[in-house]
């Protein structure tokens, strides 16, 4: 659900809030004045006519909880639109929705397609593992599912008395070979489109972030860090900042956040895991956290949080990552 927060600077035009309950064929809009009076409530066609007003996002969970404030248990588009408008009128911390450029839209579709292919790959590998375990456990234990040569091998598998299962294995292996080709072709497309982004070189320079994770980062953030005024805001959006849970005399308690962008968290988690495989600042930071008796998962989370700070600073300064911090220029005597 979205909310159109309309603000006008002229004195002759009053300030109003427009709540929009989004639908596939039609939307329902509810207009509310500063006093909370509904001045307009009507269904509108789902078109793309721009009105030049700021748009903010009201999460569905917020609308669901705010619905309980109003009288009655009825559920309708009109009521949802009113709840959205009322929420936007009372809250000033809602996230603005920025227009996404065409490149990020293409990356969104490509990365979503890649996720579908990877999900099909995992399901196929699990089915193949189950079939191999049933007729040839020793082969299943030694089988390398990540190589094409191993898949090519089982496409010609022949075992006495297991013709049906062997045929299923061969068919499944051929399907996985085709999926592998599709994934590689999609990766090439993602890499090619990612390279066209003006910040691609900066993002790609950070250890652990390649073109694929870099593209997912652009998709998760919309390709614009203007809404993340600090690195802490970006880290909080990624769920890498613990939230306080204090009550009464119990203070200083922290817990893992429940509401965050899971895709962005995965980007930095995977980048942290990849960056410690080679010697460098990330490995040094990880080893330091392990020496402080942090378990592997907590050390990785700390490194992921660190990578957020580094990437945010790189994008702010518009410079590539270097293993050592750049020295400030000294004025000539």
How many helices in DSSP terms? Answer: 12
**Class by SSE composition:** alpha+beta
- Stretches with pLDDT under 50, minimum 5 residues: 6-11
The major β-sheet equals: 6 strands, antiparallel
Q: How many structural domains does the protein architecture include? A: 3
User: Which overall shape is indicated by the principal axes computed on the Cα atoms?
Assistant: globular
Q: Write down the overall mean pLDDT.
A: 84
Strand order of the largest sheet: 4-3-2-1-5-6
What's the SSE pattern? EEEEEHHEHHHHHHHEEHHH
Radius of gyration: 26 Å
Beta-strand residue percentage: 5-15%
What is the helix fraction of residues, given as a range? 40-55%
Task: List how many beta strands DSSP finds.
Answer: 8
The end-to-end distance, rounded to whole angstroms, is: 60 Å
Task: Please sum up the structure shown.
Strand 3 (26-32) and strand 4 (38-45) form a beta hairpin. This protein has three domains: 2-96, no CATH class; 102-194; 200-317, no CATH class. The chain is α+β, with helices and mostly antiparallel strands and 333 residues long.
């Amino acid at each position: 659900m979205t909310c159109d927060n309309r603000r006008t600077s002229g004195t002759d035009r009053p300030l109003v809030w427009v709540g929009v309950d989004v639908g596939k064929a039609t939307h329902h809009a509810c207009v509310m004045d500063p006093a909370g009076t509904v001045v307009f409530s009507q269904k509108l066609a789902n078109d793309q006519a721009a009105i030049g007003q700021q748009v903010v996002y009201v999460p569905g969970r917020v609308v669901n909880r705010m619905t309980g404030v109003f009288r009655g248990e009825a559920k309708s588009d009109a009521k949802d639109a009113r709840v959205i408008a009322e929420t936007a009128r009372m809250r000033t911390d809602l996230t603005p929705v920025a227009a996404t450029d065409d490149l990020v839209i293409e990356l969104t579709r490509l990365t979503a397609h890649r996720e579908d292919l990877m999900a099909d790959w995992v399901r196929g590998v699990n089915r193949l593992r189950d079939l191999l375990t049933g007729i040839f456990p020793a082969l299943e234990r030694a089988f390398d599912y990540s190589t094409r040569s191993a898949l090519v091998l089982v496409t010609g598998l022949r075992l006495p008395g297991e013709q049906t299962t062997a045929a299923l294995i061969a068919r499944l292996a051929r399907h996985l070979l085709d999926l592998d080709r599709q994934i590689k072709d999609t990766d090439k497309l993602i890499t090619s489109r990612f390279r066209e982004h003006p910040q691609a070189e900066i993002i790609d320079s950070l250890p652990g972030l390649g073109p694929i994770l870099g593209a997912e980062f652009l998709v998760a953030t919309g390709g614009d860090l203007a809404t993340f005024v600090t690195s802490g805001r970006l880290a909080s959006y990624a769920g890498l900042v613990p939230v306080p849970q204090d009550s009464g005399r119990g203070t200083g308690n922290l817990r893992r956040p429940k509401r965050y962008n899971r895709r962005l968290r995965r980007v930095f988690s995977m980048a942290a895991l990849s960056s410690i495989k080679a010697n460098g600042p990330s490995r040094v930071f990880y080893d330091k956290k392990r020496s402080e008796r942090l378990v592997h998962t907590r050390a990785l989370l700390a490194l992921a949080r660190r990578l957020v700070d580094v990437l945010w600073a790189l994008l702010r300064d518009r410079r590539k990552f270097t293993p050592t911090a750049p020295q400030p220029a000294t004025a000539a005597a």
